[in-house]
Amino acid sequence: MGKRKKKGGTAGNVLATNRKALRDYHIAERFEAGISLLGTEVKSLREGRANLKESYCRPKGGEVWLLDCHISPYDFGNVNNHEPTRPRRLLLTRREINKLIGAVTEKGFTIVPLRFYLKGPYIKLEIATAKGKHMYDKRETKRRKDIDRETERAMKERDY
Q1: For residue 3, is pLDDT > 90?
Q2: Is the pLDDT of residue 1 over 70?
Q3: Looking at the DSSP assignment, which residues form a beta bridge with residue 54?
Q4: How many Å from the N-terminal Cα to the C-terminal Cα in the chain?
Q5: Domain ranges in the chain?
Q6: Torsion angle, CA of 79/36/18/94, rounded to 10 degrees?
Q7: Which alpha helices (H) appear in the chain, and where do they start and end?
Q8: Which of 36, 37, 110, 113 is in Cβ range 3.0-4.6 Å of 41 for a Cys bridge?
Q9: What is the C-alpha separation between 9 and 18, in angstroms, rounded?
């Protein structure tokens, strides 16, 4: 018998998310990036001990780097445990790197990490080019979500 392919997305395999990014930025384009990690970082990530809240990505020297991402030290690590906020290189194709560099040179765009997730045996990072929201944009987004929630609730009661 052959292997069965899992249906659905990667919702069950999400290790860490950056909810603040979706609230504070307009997401333009998403990318899937591999990430260069140490062994103790992988073990710590699999336990879900990462914080993407204040992290960001920056192109440097023809590569893209993840900065200020906090991955807690592995509890059972020894002297060779990793530094929690070290810069980590993202593994992208040359075309994707050029696209990201082009977007960052545009006014107001930045590269924001959205989530760590498992894809098979590999840990991937979803990044996005994003533009910062103003306060009134945040209010409008919240208002739209509230309206959608109320209409969904009304539709459920009507289908009763």
Answers
A1: no
A2: no
A3: none
A4: 44
A5: 13-134
A6: 160
A7: 19-24, 39-46, 94-105, 135-159
A8: 37
A9: 18
Mean per-residue pLDDT, 101-122? 89
Q: Which residue has the higher pLDDT, 12 or 159?
A: 159
- pLDDT, one tens digit per residue, over 116-125 is 999 988 999 9
- What's the predicted TM-score (pTM) here? 0.75
Helix/strand/coil for 48: coil
The β-bridge partners of 150 are: none
Alpha helices in 62-127 (DSSP H): 94-105
**Phi and psi angles of residue 115, each rounded to the nearest 5 degrees, phi first:** -165, 150
Q: What is the DSSP letter of 12?
A: G
- The predicted pLDDT at position 94 comes to 95
* DSSP class of 28: E
- 3-state SS class at 52: coil
- Given a cut of 90, whether residue 76 has pLDDT beyond it is no
Give 10's DSSP letter. Answer: S
Is the CA virtual torsion 123, 16, 111, 27 positive or negative? positive
Both tokens assigned to 78: 């020894």
As a dihedral over the C-alpha atoms of residue 111, residue 32, residue 45, residue 81, rounded to 10 degrees, the angle is -70
Instruction: Give the Cα separation of 37 and 158 in Å (integer).
Output: 51
